[in-house]
Amino acid sequence: MNSFELVALRVAVIFFAITNVAVSLSTPDRRSFLGIGAATTSAALGITQPAYADEEIKVDAFNGLIFNYRGNKFNGLDASDLDEPSVSFIDFGERLRKGQVAFVKFYAPDGDKAYVTFKTEEGKTVPPIRIGEGFPIEQHDGYSSPAFVVRALQNFDVPYEFVVPGLEKYKNM
After folding, report:
1. DSSP labels for 66-128?
2. What phi and psi values does residue 109 have, to the nearest 5 degrees?
3. What's this model's pTM, rounded to 2 decimal places?
4. Which residues lie closer than 8 Å to 45 by C-beta, 6 or more apart?
5. Rounded to an integer, what distance in angstroms lies between the CA atom of residue 116 and that of residue 85?
6. Long-range contacts at 26-32 (CB < 8 A, ≥ 24 apart)
7. Looking at the chain, which terminus has fewer C-beta neighbours within 10 angstroms, N or C?
8. How far is the C-alpha of 154 from the C-alpha of 88, rounded, in Å?
9. What is the C-alpha to C-alpha distance for residues 162 and 170, in angstroms, rounded to an integer?
10. What is the pLDDT of residues 103-131, one digit of tens each?
């Protein structure tokens, strides 16, 4: 049987089952009860069929449907969009793993703008610098989000905060 014949058979079986149920509800007796059972069984047998995979595909977080990642070419913030000194997201991640990150400040509304304060070898801190190329900016319909950075900071016990531009100076009032 080809796929069209299978679909036609399924539709006929389901129609038969629905018709028998409707008729048996109006005139309940032993014969209609057996008809319902037969129709339900045949509908169940007619609908199911084995599924066969055409090819083996290893599904992981980067080719599955999670976060609508499939086919997405987004690689984070582009360095050419910045007009200030910055550190790449890869460099930030390496220094985070080494314990050289003292503090990160995210700016509202989505945290797309973030500044990191690094520790020096002497234990002092240097002025904050923008996290630039590769930084995951918020895509409300995609996989990219500064929330992943927040999660990494929590994993490494690094303090962070979100601030609203313009309201930062009123914090201590």
Report:
1. GGG-TT----S--GGG--S-EE-HHHHHHHHHTT-EEEEEEETTTS-EEEEEEBPTTS-B---
2. -90, -25
3. 0.56
4. none
5. 12
6. none
7. C
8. 20
9. 14
10. 999 998 888 899 999 998 887 888 999 99
**What's the one-letter identity of residue 38?**
A
Is residue 173 exposed (0-12), middle (13-18) or buried (19+ Cβ within 10 Å)? exposed
pLDDT of the residue at 67: 44
AA identity, residue 40: T
Which range has the top average pLDDT, 12-16, 80-84, 143-147, 165-169? 80-84
Structure tokens at 52: 């066969």
Amino acid identity at 148: F
Tokens representing residue 82 in the block: 């910045």
Instruction: Give the residue carrying structure tokens 């319909």.
Output: 141
Helices 89-97 and 147-155 pack at an angle, to 10 degrees, of: 20
Nearest Cα to 119, choosing from 138, 137, 96? 96
Whole-angstrom distance, CA of residue 71 vs CA of residue 62: 9
